[in-house]
Each structure stands twice: as C-alpha cells, then as structure tokens.
Amino acid sequence: MNEQLSHTTRQNSPVTVIGLGPMGQAMTRTLLAAGHPVTVWNRTAGRADGVVSDGATLAATPGEAVVASDLVILSLTDYQAMYDVLGSSTTSLAGRTLVNLSSDTPDRTREAATWAAGHDATFLTGGVMVPSPMVGTEASSVYYSGPDQVMKSHLATLTLLGTPKYLGEDPGLAQMMYQAQLAMFLTTLSGLMHATAMLGSAGVKAQEALPELLSFAGSIGDILRAGEEKPGAALDAGEHPGELSTVTMMGATTDHIVETSTSLGLDLALPLAVQAHYRRAIEDGHGGDNWTRIIDSIRKAR
Ligand code: NDP
Predict the structure, then answer these.
(1) What class has domain 177-299?
(2) What is the CA(168)–ligand 1 centre distance, in A?
(3) CA distance 143 to 164
(4) Alpha helices of 204-268 — where are they, by DSSP H?
(5) Is residue 25 in contact with ligand 1, taking CB distance under 6 Å?
(6) Residue nearest to atom 16 of ligand 1 (CA)
(7) CATH 3.40.50.720 in the chain, residue ranges
(8) pLDDT digits (tens, 9 = 90+) for 16-42
(9) Mutate to test the pocket of ligand 1, among 49, 76, 80 (most ligand atoms within 8 A of CB)
(10) What global pTM score does this model have?
(11) 3-168: CATH topology
(12) Which residues are within 8 A (CB) of 267 and not within 5 positions of it... i.e. 6 or more apart?
C-alpha cells in the first residue's frame, strides 16, 4: 500500500466516541471534519443530537457503538463511567483499542488497562490538556501512555485531536501527568480567585485584577529560569541553594498573606496550606535554603 493510499484509508477509518460532554462532542466534530465516519453513544441520548446533525451515527447500545470501529474513544467523567457503560457489552471489546481520555487516578487507570486486556482489547490512556473549544486546533496536546505499537497504529487519527505526547508503556503515566498538570492548574485557579478576592476588597474589579495577575503568572517560567538556567536540575540533585531567595523570606510573606486574608474575612484554607509548607521547612532547620525546599514538606505527609 503506498503512503497516499494508507493516509486515505486512515482518514476513512471508522471511529467510535463514547461520552458526549463538551469534550466528546468536540472530538466527534474534529474527526468528522477530517473525514472519519464516527459512531457515537451517550447515556443521555439527546446530547447526541448536535453531532448527529453534523454527520455522526448514533448507536442504539454501547455494544453496537463498540463493534462499529476498531478505535473506541471514551470521554467520560471518570473510569467508573466506563465500567457502567461497557460492563454489559464486554464481549464486543475483543480486538478493539480503547482510548480512554477521562480523568481518574493512575491506579484506577492501570486497573482499567488490565480489565481491557482481560477482554482481549488493547488500552491507551490519554489526558487532554485543552478545553473543548481548543480540541483539534494547533494549540491542543494530549498525553498518552500504553503499548507503543498501539499508539503508533492510531497515531494519524489521534493527532487530529491534538499533538500527541507519548510518555511510555505504563498506562498510569499519562494519567499521572494529567493529574500533576491539573493539580498545578487547579491550585493556580484557586490562587487567582483568592488574589482577585483580595484586590476586590480594595475596590479593584476582576477585569482589572485578572490581566495583572495573569501577566505575573505568565512570568513564572522566566522567574524560575532567572534563578537556574535549567529549572529542576538542583532539585533533582537534592540541592536547594538559597542565594537569591530563602524559605524564611518567602515564609514571612505567607504569614503576611494569612494576616491580610484573616483581616478581610476571606477563606483561609489556601493561604494556610501554603504557609504550612514554609513553616515546616523552617521547623526542620531549612530556613536558609531556597524555596524549593518545601518539596520535602509536600513529599512526606505528617
Ligand atoms: P462531562 O462531565 O460534561 O461529560 C461526561 C460524559 O460522561 C457525559 O457524556 C456523561 O453522560 C458521561 N457519564 C458520566 N457518568 C456516567 C455514567 N455513570 N454512565 C454513563 N455515562 C456517564 O465531561 P467533559 O466532556 O467536560 O469531560 C470529559 C472528560 O474529559 C473528563 O474526564 C474531564 O476531566 C476531561 N477533560 C475535560 C476538559 C474540559 O474542558 N471539559 C478538559 C480536559 C479534560 P450524560 O451526558 O448522560 O451525563
């Protein structure tokens, strides 16, 4: 088969999408636009109306959706939803590739790969790093892990959803990367709202506060690189040189934030958590180290 024909065949290869929240709908539209026949199934059938009018085929049952395509993409709230949907049609799974792009824990993701193998299906884990309006755009990227060969055989189709970033064979790894990124993202979102509430108490509107805050958030990479050309190298070496900023200095700032937030009557959960990381590092005798020392407060729960 020549390259052109192979490409055409892939473009025409059927794909199934199970789960039609905003993400599943965006993926379905992206695949349809690229010429793939797409079969969909969703627990609430009415949610398929839009993509069906765009050309997708609505399967009557999950089993019918699975047998329609070798490649079955799942976009559900969590992994339990996958068992809820596919649990009664496991005989249809043999020979299929399940690509689960749903959030859950790495352990539950590994269990799911074993479950799929027990039904003679192959399994790829994915974590989509953009919201639904960005799916299929140049800015989109998706972390994957699972069998290398399976990744390679579906690469052309999966690339349509976003740039694939393959992390290796461990099915839990893409989920761990997704969770780590979201841990950072969600904490940042809470930080943004805390800061917006602080500024709001001084009469600064959110539409004025957020551009300032986002500009500073965007400079975090530059700030880290100013202290260390390759951020993380010292951390990997277990070193926390405190020439530029110390745990004690940053810890004092966390005290000020807690005091200010207390006087404003704001929720203290977030500032107290941050303060605790610095306090513990100081208690452990690391006040003169770089702020990265707080990783020890985080690595070992007390
Ligand atoms: P939604 O929560 O809107 O949709 C989830 C889908 O899961 C729906 O189709 C819903 O069916 C289905 N579902 C949930 N529980 C069950 C169940 N027990 N049985 C059957 N079906 C079930 O999610 P999104 O589309 O927003 O997200 C999908 C996944 O993508 C999530 O894991 C999310 O973390 C991840 N993600 C989302 C992003 C976003 O911006 N939205 C960005 C990146 C990743 P029904 O319609 O019947 O309720």
Answers:
(1) mainly alpha
(2) 25
(3) 6
(4) 206-218, 220-227, 233-236, 247-264
(5) no
(6) 81
(7) 3-168
(8) 999 999 999 999 999 999 999 999 999
(9) 76
(10) 0.93
(11) Rossmann fold (3.40.50)
(12) 194, 261
